Amino acid sequence: MRTTALRAAAAVARRLVRASLRDVVMVLVLVAAALLVTCGFMRHPAPETLSKEETAQVYAALLSHAQPGGPNHLHSRRLYHYAPPFAEAAGANVHIVQAAALLHDATKEDGKGEPKEKFCTHGDQGSNLTREVLAKLGKSESFVELASGAVREHMGPCGFNLRFFSRRFMSKFCGRSYPKPSSLEAQVLYDIDMLDLMTVDGVVKVAELRQKNPEFEKEPLRDSVVAGADSAWKSVIDAKQTLITSRAQACGADLATHTERFIDGLDWTVVVDVPALKQAATAYLTAKPLPECLPAVPPWDRGRLP
User: Fold this and answer.
1) What is the dihedral of CA 120, 231, 62, 121, to 10 degrees?
2) Residue 3's domain spans which residues?
3) 31 confidence band (pLDDT: 50, 70, 90)
4) Number of structural domains found in the chain
5) 211 pLDDT above the threshold of 70
6) Is 239 helix (H, G, I), strand (E, B) or coil?
7) Using an 8 Å Cβ cutoff, are 271 and 230 in contact?
8) Where are the beta strands (DSSP E) in 150-243?
9) Do 38 and 164 reside in the same domain of the chain?
10) How far apart, in whole angstroms, are the C-alpha atoms of residue 116 and residue 119?
11) What percent of the chain has pLDDT over 70?
12) Mean per-residue pLDDT of the chain
């Protein structure tokens, strides 16, 4: 009886020792893995970047297609500077978003087709240009695909706006559907594009394009800004409703309020043309700068970099 009990106890002890050894080995493996990661042996490769020289070449490509100092050029510069905090918050590659930001509207002015066709296809045409520019720089296929895909998928705002009981601008004007942003980089580009559309500068840009570009019918400046069926103000609301990332949604709420106050304060007996609208915008932004959720954009000085 005693012998049997001793054998049973020994068997249990052996199992416990084996189990303890397994636990010890597992702990050692986990500690070793942690040390390897800490020391950098198992760290993921660093995200691909754009050097200053490469950024200069991408920027030069923009300036070869868009009028320097014109609305598309200045808009693209703003997006380049907006990109870092929104890309970082979303876990996207900042440099991919910045490359796409510089080139997303580059073909609006000298793309193929009639004015309306250029406008409605500038996502596809800009995507092709982006692929060409970045491939020549020797960027990886992944970098090129994500940047060109973001440009292709930035078109908006699309869908239906129940507040105005009307389709959103891009769907209405172009009469077609567009792909939704699929990658993190595409979502960030879309969001910062929409956020810029919501700013005072964005309102001025839309109004100027509607006043000057042949693809739009002639209309009073007040209609282009706020009173028309497809005014810049309606585009502000269209854009706000379609923001994707949480950081952009929070920023959009502040921007809508800031821009609405600007529009409500316009004196239409003084603001009779685009130069006067720009002057009013400069005065307003001097007195009431943009909400802090958007990074400050340095003045354009015709320098080598954006």
Assistant:
1) 0
2) 1-43
3) very low
4) 2
5) yes
6) helix
7) no
8) 160-161, 166-167
9) no
10) 5
11) 85
12) 89
